[in-house]
Amino acid sequence: MPSPPRCVQVGVNQKVNHFDFGWFHFHGFSCCSFSFFTCGLAGSRFLESQRSDSLFVDVLASKLAGREGLAQPMGDWIMVPRTRFGDDFVFQHYMKPRGARQLVLLGAGMDARAYRLRLPELKVFEVGCYL
Q1: Distance separating alpha carbons of residues 64 and 60, to the nearest angstrom
Q2: The whole model's pTM is what?
Q3: Which domains are delineated in the chain?
Q4: Calpha distance 98→85 (Å, rounded)
Q5: Which residue(s) pair with 125 in the sheet?
Q6: Which of 11, 24, 76, 129 has the fewest CB atoms within 10 Å, counting from its CB?
Q7: Three state DSSP letters for the chain
Q8: What is the pLDDT of residues 18-35, one digit of tens each?
C-alpha cells in the first residue's frame, strides 16, 4: 500500500499528534479531546460511507467519530454534499497542469480527506479548534 500524503492537524490548545490506524496514525485520540460537533460530523461521514449509493467512503470516520460521534451524528444534510463537492474540487485542481499540491482545511470537522483522496503529492493541513 502506498504511503498516504503528509497530513498535519493543527488545533487551538492542542498538540500536533501522531495517528495509528493501520497506515493512518494518531496517538492519544479520544473523542472527548475534540469538540462534540466535530465528532458528530465524523459520525455523519461514517453513516454516508455505509450507504450502497454513498457519495464517498471514509474508512476512518468511525474511529474519528468515537462512541459519542457515532451515537449522535449531525450535519449530514449539508456535510455530505459539501464533502463530495470538496473532494471533487480538490481532485480537479490537483489534476491540472501545475495543479494544487497543498490544501488547508479550515474547520473541517476531523475530515480524513488527505487519506480518502490518496493524492500522493498533496500536503494537507487541517486547522480547527478541537476543544
Answers
A1: 6
A2: 0.71
A3: 7-128 (3.40.50.150)
A4: 21
A5: 8, 104
A6: 129
A7: CCCCCCEEEEECCECCCCEEECCEEECCCCHHHCCHHHHHHHHHHHHHHHCCCCCCCCCCHHHHHHHHHHHCCCCHHHHHHHHHHHHHHHHHHHHCCCCCCEEEEECCCCCCHHHHHCCCCCEEEEEECCC
A8: 443 333 344 444 444 567
